[in-house]
Amino acid sequence: MAAFQQALANFNNTQQDNAPSSSTSVSIRGSATGAPSTRSLSSALRGAGITREQGMELDGTNNGGRVGRGGRRGARSAGPLDQTGRHHPSNNANNKPYQKPGSLASRMTPASSSSRDGRHPRNGSNNARNPAGTPPVIKQLQTISGKAEREHSKSELTKKLHGEEMKEWIRKRVIGDGILDMSNLQNDPWLKENGILPPGHPNAPPNAGTVFWRIIESVVQKGAGITIRTLSLANNNLDHLAQLSKLPLTLPDIRALDLSGNPIKNIGELDNLRAAGEKKGKATAGAGSLKSLVEIKLNGCFFREKMLQQPDGPNIYKHDILRRFPGLRILDGIELERIILPIDRKPKVRLTEEQKAAFVAKPFTFPCDVQSAFGEEGVKGPAMQFCAKYFTLFDNDRNALLPGYAPNALISISANTLPSRSANQVEVMKTRANRPQPVSFEAWTNLPSRNFFRGTTSIKARMDSLHNPADAERLLRWWNKVVPRTKHPLSDPEKWCFDTWVLDGEGESTKLCLMIQGEFEEMPSGTYRSFSRTFILSPAPPGSPAANAGWPAIILSDTMTVHSYLGTFAFDERNRSLATHGVTIQPPPIIPSTSVPAAGNDALVAQLSQRTGMNAQFSAMCLEQNNWNFQAALKNFEEIRGTIPPEAFV
């Protein structure tokens, strides 16, 4: 109280200097004649570094809130004064510093026997944090307060994951040659005993899957030299597959994967098993892809059962699975009807720098040069007549194209929006200033484009991208109102590249494949686009609408792909020849035959010599190599005509 008395004495001296009368008195409680104001006394107390003790009140206020002489209504609760003179709330019942609910201090300090609202306090035995069956080692980690002890406990758990017991447990899970059984891990006794939470456990850390796959790779694939090709992850309570995102990186050779019995809710979770390139529609996905996967089991997964109950559910389900894993042959234990080509994947060969240098230094040879020509005799004329008529009408009057299609013909357009990375792009950029500013590809991608990797991902969208003349109204509406207008360089032959050959058939049943590459201007913007177009043609039957309209051939199939501008440097006359790129044209040597044709084959030799212009010796050799089959020999001659030496002709 000495400090208070000193402050009071200072205050009295001040009041005495200013007071009109010497009878003024001050009291701590009550009201006296000439009592000082509350604000003046508070200022004096603060100047002495004193705050009001609990229960201590100044003149002018009381518990009832009555206003004293010179004071205001006491509406504020009792509490200490800070340095600004404001009242703070009183301390709690235990006279502890104020703690914000849920703050770090409240979590670090021991809890009282009951909380403010009567609920039980949070402590180390919280059932929500430690459910029944939680391994002791996990409880220990949650209850340790010291950082050093906590880090030590984590290191002990890490030692278990990389210890010999864990490795031996992994080895026992290999149940056959390349077969690893990792199913029902949550009920595994050894994992429970050691407090290891597997992928799929509700409390498993986010990287649990990555740790498991890396241990398997280290112990089984690298340690034991066993390549894992079959993996079972059935009944692991996996409701999402984020834990499997690193699986393709560590176990890329998996051919069969069992995910049955897991409550996977969305089919999109399967994208965690795909590489980033695959998700974007790239054929070369790179690392992180299950390229070898041919079988997958999803029986009992939530999304599968839900999809199968929808209208046309089995087809939609199969379509969505094959879109993600196009190499599948077996789905849910059922063999799919797929066309399998007998192609063996060759191992990747990695060359040393010396081997690469030797390979580059070796001159490159090719048996024949690449020249502008048509593969079969007699197809150039009809093909050129067809193109001159077709592209003129496509630019100016698409309605007139309709008679040129067979009633069952299929028509589609696909947009390839990926930029070119070829060396020709350098030449393209040199002429960039001569072309209008390119516009968006949106007009082509919204056709819808028949691009299975970009937008057209459902069965309905794929069917909508196909058109045929049987529904002429829909086709003409699509051509005239949806497909952008075009302007092809019809008067510049250097802007075109044609490849054509006979597919099969003879006479009126002949089927001709015509592949065209070139460019056009998209109207009205004038943006330059490159395109590839493939027609399957057949002779127009006499009296048919195509023949009556002057078409030399009828269209059975029409497939068009639109690209960003690529230029014509790849196929113009200056760059077409391989010899201009340092390639040596070296025809294969032809060894003359010394055999004498049988008497009955003289007529075939003479006939082939007359048709091809070759002398009798080379004509006989050509027939002999084709088992004296005249048609096969004639076809073989057309295929290798450019490589036959001059001395073979008469």
From TrEMBL:
Keyword Hydrolase: no
Species whose genome carries this gene: Kwoniella mangroviensis CBS 10435
Methyltransferase found in the keyword field: no
Keyword terms: Leucine-rich repeat, mRNA transport, Nucleus, Repeat, Transport
GO biological-process terms attached to the record: poly(A)+ mRNA export from nucleus
Name of one Pfam family that matches: TAP_C
Protein name: mRNA export factor MEX67
Compositional bias annotation for Polar residues: 17-43
Positions of region (Disordered): 12-137
Domain TAP-C: 599-650
The organism's taxonomic lineage, starting at the top: Eukaryota, Fungi, Dikarya, Basidiomycota, Agaricomycotina
Ranges for domain NTF2: 382-562
Protein role: Involved in the export of mRNA from the nucleus to the cytoplasm.
Major site of localization recorded for this protein: nucleus
One GO MF term attached to the UniProt entry: RNA binding
